[in-house]
Design goal:
Layout: H1 18-69, E1 72-77, E2 80-82, E3 89-91, H2 96-107, E4 115-120, H3 126-138, E5 143-147, E6 150-151, H4 154-159, E7 164-167, E8 172-173, E9 179-180, E10 183-184, H5 185-194, H6 202-226, H7 232-243, H8 255-260, E11 265-266, H9 271-277, E12 290-292
Parallel strand pairs: 1-4, 4-5, 5-7, 6-8, 7-11
Antiparallel strand pairs: 1-12, 2-3, 9-10
Length: 323
């Protein structure tokens, strides 16, 4: 470099303008959002397809049972199904939606057609259970309830309406004493018997009044169901045993205990019901707890009365059927 030539300035640091920095960060944010929605859509599609396959398998088993037993088969199975991509299990119980679905299935069943109910439930709303039990008790055809694992509280109430209760050797039923909120009605009444009214809050007094009415109402309803199997005095005695709160609400009524109550108990559980239970619980969204398969319609084939025919003069053809 000659003495008169000016030196080149040293290169300074590279500076990204705020405009370019903002564009880059916005592009990354958009990419992250797009990736999130693609993954979410893929998960939802996976769960939806898996749930559809499981429901189809359940219906196939129910259809096979219907064809085999010549009955209307209804499953009310309450378990824990994963209903979100975060894997949060939600347990279900007998609800008004269940009673609406089962009443619809019963209404679509011919009066003399047998009905089979598969029950797996911790219980639920008394009103819904009583609606189902009354509809089954009024049905003219034979009603069979299958209990592969447990049918507690309202589930037992429904089972009492059946002509036959088929239980797995290890399955259990339960007492049907009413619950007010999360407290046994019998225990609420007991409090007012142990304490003077001045020592009890107004809220407990109100709950005690409701509890007393609930016990009378449920006992009367269970008595009506048991009249299907027992004379009046025996029906009242057993209804009182099951509803007066002498047992805890989760007390297991085993096959032996149920037979001691002289309920119509059997242990001939079809293997298809165990296969059905293997499909619960399953991951999926929107699994209905009540399923039934429509009967296969037999075509209405009518033939006209036979008329004398002249001997055929040409090749014979098969007679046609008119529908």
């Amino acid at each position: 470099m000659s003495a008169g030539t000016p030196a080149h300035p040293a290169p300074g640091p590279v500076v990204i303008s705020a405009k370019h920095h903002h564009s880059w960060s916005e592009w990354l944010a958009n990419l992250a959002r797009a990736f999130f929605w693609i993954v979410l859509a893929g998960l939802l599609l996976h769960y939806s397809c898996g749930s559809a396959r499981v429901v189809a398998a359940r219906k196939q088993i129910l259809d096979h049972l219907q064809q085999q037993r010549k009955s209307r088969v209804i499953a009310m199975i309450h378990g824990q199904d994963t209903v979100s991509v975060l894997g949060v299990p939600v347990a279900s119980s007998i609800s008004i939606e269940d009673s609406e679905a089962i009443l619809r299935a019963i209404r679509l069943t011919p009066p003399d057609q047998p009905i089979d109910i598969i029950l797996h439930t911790p219980g639920g709303l008394v009103l819904a259970a009583e609606q189902i039990a009354k509809a089954l008790a009024d049905h003219k055809g034979k009603v069979t309830v299958f209990v592969p694992h447990y049918a507690m509280s309202g589930g037992t109430l429904i089972a009492l309406a059946a002509d036959e209760i088929v239980m797995d050797p290890n399955a259990v039923l339960g007492p049907v004493d009413p619950q007010i909120g999360d407290m046994p009605a019998a225990s609420i009444v007991k409090v007012t018997e142990l304490k003077k009214p001045a020592q009890v809050s107004d809220q407990i007094l109100v709950l005690a009044d409701i509890s007393a009415k609930a016990r009378v109402q449920v006992t009367a309803f269970v008595t009506k169901l048991l009249l299907k199997h027992f004379p009046h005095d025996k029906a009242v005695a057993l209804a009182t045993t099951l509803t007066d709160g002498r047992f805890t609400h989760d007390y297991p009524i085993t096959v032996e205990t149920a037979r001691g109550f002289e309920l119509p108990i059997s242990e001939t559980m079809p293997m298809d019901i165990y296969d059905l239970m293997d499909l619960y619980p399953q991951t999926g969204i929107g699994r209905p707890s009540v399923l039934y398969v429509p009967f296969r319609r037999v075509p209405d084939v009518r033939t006209e009365p036979a008329t004398p025919a002249s001997p055929p003069s040409g090749p014979q053809r098969a007679p046609e059927q008119k529908r």
